[in-house]
Structure formats: C-alpha cells, structure tokens
C-alpha cells in the first residue's frame, strides 16, 4: 500500500508524464560556489540505478563526494524538512534583532 506522500508524488509524475524511473534528486549541504572553488562539498543523488549510478560516478571528484541511493521520496522529503527546521531556528534566534533579512521574513 502506498503512503500518502508516495501517492501524491505518483500523481504528480503521472500528470507531468514523466516516468518515476527518469526522475532524479540531487541535493546536499553545499552551494555552487564551494563546488566551483574546489572546496570540499558533498551531495546525494537518488533515483533509479540506470541513471543514478553513472551520473554519480561522473560527478564524483576528490573535492565533491557524491553518495547514491534509490530512495527518492525520503531524500526529497528530508531535504525539504531541513529547510523548515532552519527557518524555525532562524525565527527564534534572530526575530528580536535588527538583521534585515531575517527580520523582514518574520514581520510580513
């Protein structure tokens, strides 16, 4: 039996007309500048092995570590959840300060 999230994602893939075997997730705790400057960075790539394995091998560099995993749904959800935690932490840490970026987000 599909979970609610898996059902929603399946419907999205059906509506978009993209087979789930052709969908990949690439994410990690890094920014493009770090990778460009050859600073240590890492990421994970998730999806079907036919695309994931060769792409992970192609992307791996001594300074850019790429892990691969088949669990697309969990990694996508956890990637979004970390953003929710970060926003919540920022709200409680910086809401009483005059840091414009943080202050404006929470006073709209």
Account of the 3D structure:
- With 108 residues, the protein is α+β, with helices and mostly antiparallel strands.
- The protein folds into two domains: 21-70, no CATH class; 72-108.
- It is 56% helix and 16% strand.
- The protein has five helices and three strands; from the N terminus they run αβαβαβαα.
- The protein has helices at 4-16, 32-36, 49-59, 72-94, 100-107; strands spanning 24-27, 41-47, 64-69.
Distance between the termini: 41 Å
Q: How are the strands ordered across the major sheet?
A: 1-2-3
The overall average pLDDT, rounded, is 78
The parts where pLDDT drops under 50 for at least 5 residues are none
Report the sheet-strand fraction: 15-25%
How many strands? Answer: 3
Question: What attributes does this structure have?
Answer:
alpha+beta, 3 strands, three-stranded mixed sheet, 108 residues, 5 helices, 56% helix
């Amino acid at each position: 039996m599909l979970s609610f999230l898996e059902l929603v994602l399946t419907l999205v893939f059906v509506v978009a007309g993209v087979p789930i075997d052709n969908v990949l997730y690439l994410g990690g705790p890094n920014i493009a500048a770090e990778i460009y400057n050859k600073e240590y960075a890492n990421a994970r790539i998730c999806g079907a092995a036919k695309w994931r394995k060769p792409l992970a091998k192609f992307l791996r560099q001594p300074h850019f570590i790429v892990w691969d995993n088949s669990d697309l749904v969990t990694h996508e959800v956890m990637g979004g959840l970390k953003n929710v935690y970060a926003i919540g932490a920022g709200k409680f840490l910086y809401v009483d300060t005059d840091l414009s970026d943080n202050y404006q987000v929470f006073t709209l």
